Structure formats: C-alpha cells, structure tokens
Amino acid sequence: MRYFRYTLLLILMLSTSSLVASDTSDQSVSQIVVEVQLGDQLLQFTEQPRLLDVLQYAITNASTYWPAASLHRRDERMQEKQQQFLQQLQQLRDHYQTKKQQHKANAIQLLYLQVRQWRVASRIPIVIDVDKARTQLAFNPQLDEGAYYLSVPTRPRVIHPIGLYQEAAPMQHQRATPAKDYLVSGYRLPLSARSHVWILQPDATVKQVGVAYWNRQYDELQPGAQLLIPFAPRALPRAYRHLNDDLLELALHRIVVE
To answer: What residues does the Capsule biosynthesis GfcC-like C-terminal domain cover (predicted)?
Structure first.
C-alpha cells in the first residue's frame, strides 16, 4: 500500500510540470499556453517560461553561433502582409504585361515566386545568448502566450541574396568580402537598384550600403546574412513605391534556414 501511494504521488507531481511533452495524448488536464518549435522538437509549456527555460533544451556547444540565433512568434498579421504583398506583385506584373513590358513583368514574377516560399513570423527583438540569459535578467525575458520558432544554429556557411536578383540561392560566405563582391554581373533584374543594396545581418541589424563606383562602401556580411537587392527608388509606378518598404519588412521577419 505504501508503494502504491508513492507511485500515485509521483504521477500527480509529473502531471503539474510546466513542460508538457509534445506527444502527450491527453492535454485536457493542463492547458498549453506557450509552444516553441526548436528544430525537430515541439516544446509545450503550461506556464509562461523564461527564455532560459527554453534554451536548456537546445543543443549548444562551441560551434553555436549566437549572433544568428533568433526567436519568432507565429503571427497571422505577418502572414497577411505576405499575402497582400504577393497580391500586389501580381497586379504589378499584370500592369507591365498590359503595357507590353514583358522583361519587367518577368522580373516581378521571379520576385513573386521567391517571396511566396518565405516562411515569415514576427521576430522578437532580443539578443539570444545562453550565458547572458543565465546572468542578466534583461536577456532572459518571460515569453507571452503564443507559438514561437526558436533557432539556435551552428556557424552558417552561406549568405542569402534575395530580392530582385536572378539567382536567389545561398552563396558561400567569404571572409573580408564587401557586399559589392557578392553581386554577380548581369544577375540583377530589371527594376532593381544599381547604386545600393540592403544588408540584413543575422542579428537583425540592417544597413543600406552603396555598391556603385561613386558611392561604394566596404561593409562585410556576417555568416547567415541576407543581401537584399531592392527596387530602384523611382522604377515603380507611384502607387507601388511602398513595395520596397514592404519587401524589407518581410525579409526582416523571415525565418532564415541554411
């Protein structure tokens, strides 16, 4: 009888844990308030965890590249913005087709196909580092209710050219290499800016960089960065000039995987 009571007590204690296994068959006992997708793991919490509570399930070692770690919150608003952006690209493509400007329509179609494949969610503006989370409360916030994606990668080997670029595929990261040197001659699409690009570093730092002969700047891309080739400022009809800002926002909230 004593063994039976001890076993029952142990079961009750486990059922009140704030972390619930993702394959739990009966979740009606404890309401899930926070879900975190961490690689192949789905972590479910019945109480609002702090960041460190989640990071303890990440596999970290000397090769972990904390500048590229990111936390995104699933957000229908961002997905709606993505769909609105795609719809406007379709309208713009049709506009150029009507005007018999097929080269511009083709450029818009390539951008459409690229952005349609992006996975977007609201990026949480926080520095993620397990050592800082352990020692400084500012780097160990409590997560609000919702569903999140947490990425804790090893050092990336590539950078990601995106936007109005013919080959929006990962390129090998090169040390001591400015943005200009990643741009392959002839790969920028019609309507693209020729004098500048945007660098989106993996820690969400953003900078516009000159790449023309008269304004060239030496700015390196960190491993895992995005190199955004935007629209030229006045290349679009006035009603569509906001698309550059929309493209930059979507890129900032894109979940980048190598």
So the answer is: 179-255
Q: What count of other Cβ atoms lies within 10 Å of the Cβ of residue 141?
A: 15
pTM over the 0.85 mark:
yes
Range of lowest pLDDT (25-34, 121-130, 197-206): 25-34
The pLDDT of 120-149, averaged and rounded, is 96
What is the reported pLDDT for 8? 33
Cα separation, 60 vs 63, whole angstroms: 8
Both tokens of residue 230?
């935007």
Q: Which of 80, 108, 96, 99 is nearest to 243 (CA)?
A: 108
Count CB neighbours of 183 within 10 A: 17
DSSP code of residue 140: S
**Cβ(162)–Cβ(227) below 8 Å:** yes
Residue count of the chain: 258
